[in-house]
């Protein structure tokens, strides 16, 4: 009920803006001492563009109709009449045609901006939940464009300092390593060599950490670097493992614990590499994919967001699920879309459980079934099949692309995706993937 009222208020605001913009344009134009002619249309067109930009296609068309009626009644002689003289028919027709074109242009431009904002939001969600530092830097002029919050935990210094001076991270490097790191980094920014180094930093509390940092340059058409991005990870635990491996065997338990820490770090680094491949739109590559491991990786990425929304995220994975042949990055994108959507669906719930269960099982029909079950608001009254159509969305700020892309990915793998209501409330999203005849054993 609250969602319905909120949608109605949003609708009234958008159409109210369209009505107000059109009326204001007509009022201003009517008060100006300008002779009738093409000059009667400019302000009205501006009102139409503003209405379409902020309200969408419907409010834009509404403003166009109001403007056309007002122009015909007040501004085209004879005044106070809907009579249309022959000499004004062409210009009014051009006004309506140009208005429709501008509405479609404004709506398309706004759709692209929303898609970019949604993409940036998903990137930030992933960047803020992984253990590595992700950074993006402008070379000309020098400046930090993005640094993930893990910098504050590893370096022990505020991220805001880097936005003021992008070289401040270099001051934390151990004095014995600083000269070599700085010279290598600056040569790399100038386009010479590569940047893939291990070095020590000294935190404000006096602690020393080992860092492995590597970067990629983005070049202009002329081959000149203009932007740099990369990853920096804390490998202090990995260094300790190497030290422990050389010690006598009475430290087996400590070695096993540290090795497990490094394994988790390597898995997170692999996820980051896959995210970077996805943002570069690398071509899909089919390999044998452990679907349970893939689910675990995405749960690791989204667990912090789930905790922030007070959602209990659980995994119920069947151990007998065999590997499937597919693109690991694309399947991660599907799971990420479904899990983030489920978290968002429950984040606004005032009461009741907030359980999110991701499961896997082997189907009798020689396939793998993956299930994402939430306790959110549930499916809309429209057919669940429409949820997977491009640009169809029930979220006020949504673009309706996530589920459409997910369906495209699953179908390209020979599978199927669908949604059903959960009991007593919520939704269940499921997809299947076929098992190849020559699949290796799980």
Q: What is the architecture of the largest domain at the second tier of CATH?
A: 2-Layer Sandwich
Strand content: 15-25%
CATH level 1 name of the largest domain: Alpha Beta
Q: Which regions are unreliable across 5 or more consecutive residues at pLDDT < 50?
A: none
Summarize the structure.
The chain is α+β, with helices and mostly antiparallel strands and 442 residues long. Helix content is 51%, strand content 19%. It folds into three domains: 2-126, no CATH class; 127-279, 2-Layer Sandwich (Beta-Lactamase); 287-434, Histidine kinase-like ATPase, C-terminal domain (Heat Shock Protein 90, 2-Layer Sandwich), CATH 3.30.565.10.
Explain what you see:
- With 442 residues, the protein is of the alpha+beta class.
- 51% of the residues lie in helices and 19% in strands.
- It has three domains: 2-126, no CATH class; 127-279, 2-Layer Sandwich (Beta-Lactamase); 287-434, 2-Layer Sandwich (Heat Shock Protein 90), CATH 3.30.565.
- The strands form three sheets. A five-stranded antiparallel β-sheet has the order 2-1-5-4-3, sandwiched between helices. A five-stranded mixed β-sheet has the order 7-9-10-12-11. It has a two-stranded antiparallel sheet with strand order 6-8.
- The model has no long low-confidence stretch (mean pLDDT 82).
Provide tags for this entry.
442 residues; alpha+beta; Beta-Lactamase; Heat Shock Protein 90; five-stranded antiparallel sheet; five-stranded mixed sheet; 13 helices; 51% helix
């Amino acid at each position: 009920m609250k969602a319905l009222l909120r949608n109605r208020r949003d609708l009234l605001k958008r159409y109210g803006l369209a009505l107000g913009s059109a009326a204001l344009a007509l009022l201003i134009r009517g008060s100006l001492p300008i002779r009738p002619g093409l000059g009667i249309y400019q302000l009205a067109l501006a009102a139409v563009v503003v209405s379409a930009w902020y309200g969408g296609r419907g409010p834009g068309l509404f403003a166009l109709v109001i403007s056309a009626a007002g122009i015909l009644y007040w501004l085209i002689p004879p005044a106070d009449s809907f009579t249309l003289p022959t000499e004004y028919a062409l210009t009014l027709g051009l006004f309506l045609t140009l208005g429709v074109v501008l509405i479609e242009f404004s709506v398309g431009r706004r759709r692209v901006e929303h898609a970019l904002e949604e993409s940036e939001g998903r990137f930030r969600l992933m960047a803020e939940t992984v253990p590595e530092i992700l950074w993006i830097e402008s070379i000309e002029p020098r400046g930090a464009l993005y640094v993930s919050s893990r910098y504050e935990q590893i370096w022990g210094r505020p991220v805001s300092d880097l936005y003021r001076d992008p070289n401040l991270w270099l001051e934390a490097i151990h004095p014995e390593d600083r000269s070599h790191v700085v010279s290598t980094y600056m040569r790399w920014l100038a386009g010479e060599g590569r940047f893939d180094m291990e070095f020590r930093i000294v935190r404000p509390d006096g602690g020393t950490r080992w860092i492995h940092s590597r970067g990629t340059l983005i070049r202009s058409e002329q081959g000149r670097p203009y932007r740099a991005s990369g990853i920096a990870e804390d490998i202090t635990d990995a260094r300790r493992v190497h030290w422990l491996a050389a010690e006598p065997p009475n430290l087996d338990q400590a070695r096993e614990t540290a090795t497990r820490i490094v394994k988790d770090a390597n898995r997170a680094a692999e996820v980051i590499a896959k995210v970077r491949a996805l943002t570069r739109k690398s071509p899909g590559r089919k390999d044998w994919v452990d679907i349970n491991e893939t689910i675990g990786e995405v749960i690791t990425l989204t667990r912090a967001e789930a905790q922030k929304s007070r959602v209990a995220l659980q995994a119920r994975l069947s151990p007998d699920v065999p590997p499937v042949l597919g693109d690991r990055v694309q399947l991660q994108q599907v799971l990420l879309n479904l899990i983030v959507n489920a978290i968002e669906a429950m984040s606004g719930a005032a009461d009741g459980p907030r359980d999110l269960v991701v499961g896997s099982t082997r189907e009798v029909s020689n396939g793998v079934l993956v299930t994402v079950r939430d306790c959110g608001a549930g499916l809309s009254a429209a057919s669940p099949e429409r949820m997977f159509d491009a640009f169809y969305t029930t979220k006020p700020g949504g673009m309706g692309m996530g589920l459409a892309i997910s369906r495209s990915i699953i179908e390209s793998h020979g599978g199927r995706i669908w949604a059903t209501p959960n009991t007593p409330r919520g939704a269940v999203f499921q997809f299947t993937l076929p098992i190849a005849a020559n699949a290796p054993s799980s």
